[in-house]
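Memo to structure team: turn this sequence into structure tokens by end of day. - J.P.
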Amino acid sequence: MSTGDEALRLESASPELLAALEAAGWDRDRDVAIDHVVEELAAQGYEINTYAAAFLRSLCGLRIDPANEDGPNFQNTEQLIVDPLGVGRRHRPEAVEVESLIGESVFPVAWWLSYSYVHVAASGRMVAFSSGLTWSLGNTPEQGLDMAVRASEPLVCIGSRSGQARWPKPPAWT
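Reply from structure team:
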């Protein structure tokens, strides 16, 4: 699949998100070569998508500190570590589990909360998986990035393994 000339769209990003990105070493002209990442992960069974490619070209290799640690329903105390090889090399079975849940292919991009595996789906949707739980981070990579750095929305569990309680519980359950 061609990764096109798409770019991560941060024109309307919050000042807090931009400050966190800049503190991690990001700038608007950052363009990381990701061919070796795509090639190695293709051998593991992953297929790059335009959204994941744009995310990685802009952010690959960065460790982004949270701009806000107090999310609406969770503590956001861990960095977003943009390490697609670290996630993808070891966690293909979990990616297949996520793909089955959401009905589309995913590409690994980062580690996040509780060392969850963060993926960008072919539609652009961003999800995280850890210990049998799958969370939605946003419908676009930009929303997912904002969620992971600013804890800007409630964390929503969209799936769990059979018999496993969802976390965090939706507000209606409290």
